[in-house]
Design brief:
By secondary structure, the chain is an alpha/beta fold. The chain has helices spanning 3-10, 32-39, 59-69, 102-119, 138-143, 153-165, 185-194, 208-217, 226-230, 234-246, and strands spanning 17-22, 46-49, 74-76, 90-96, 122-130, 170-174, 199-202, 221-224. The protein has a single domain, classed as FMN-linked oxidoreductases (TIM Barrel, Alpha-Beta Barrel). The chain has an eight-stranded parallel barrel, surrounded by eight helices. The radius of gyration is 16 Å and the shape is globular. The structure holds SN-glycerol-1-phosphate (1GP).
Amino acid sequence: MTVFQSLMDKLATQSANYLMLIDPDAKNDDRLDDMVAAANGAGVDAILVGGSLIVDDGMDRRVAAIKERAEAPVILFPGSANQLSRHADAILFMSLLSGRNPQYLIGEQIQAAPVVREMGLETIATGYLLMEGGSSTSVEIVSGTKPLPADKPDIILAHALAGQYMGMAVIYLEAGSGAANPVPDDLIKIVASSLDIPVIVGGGLRTPADAAAKVRAGASFVVTGSIAEESPDTETLAAFARAIHTA
Ligand code: 1GP
């Protein structure tokens, strides 16, 4: 069974899946072990690994270290075609549909595709929509794309539907790491209730209650990144997992 199918199957018994994001950058080198140890036993459903910008060549080594210790599947969440590793179980094969930069719509994907095939990674086709989150984010800067305004639900829904009709397996609503304003519940409601494919929500979720609200609005997957960097302990992550699983 694929990683994606096993996560979808979990939705029969829990409200949503908790995805913990680890940025495999040098800045987290001495925290990796603690973050993975915290995820183990906390009920994290999968570990996402990726970032907008990796400042050294240590990513592959870090993915290997995460995979070696992690109990949950490891899924790449790449900022570019450089962020591939055969040590992962799967990859969110993303297109930045909210932007109009061909490099992130299709260019990086063409660079990555033969390598992904050679590595034998499971691909999860993901329509990635960057939303205004109240501050400028690394994704916006690195991709050179404008986020979608969160107060234009019709436009956001049109992007999400386009992703579905183009065959994406999932739509990712991203407010950006550390966003002051996470993706609004109303918007998630509109998008999730209009799509036949599941929705991932991430960016700026600070508390288990924040995360639960996104699930009640319709998210099938909730992502946190900063929380585990700041508090890499099982108790903190378990509180998020519980809130997300039972919302
Ligand atoms: C993943 O960008 C998010 O979608 C992670 O955001 O670091 O704010 O949790 P945080």
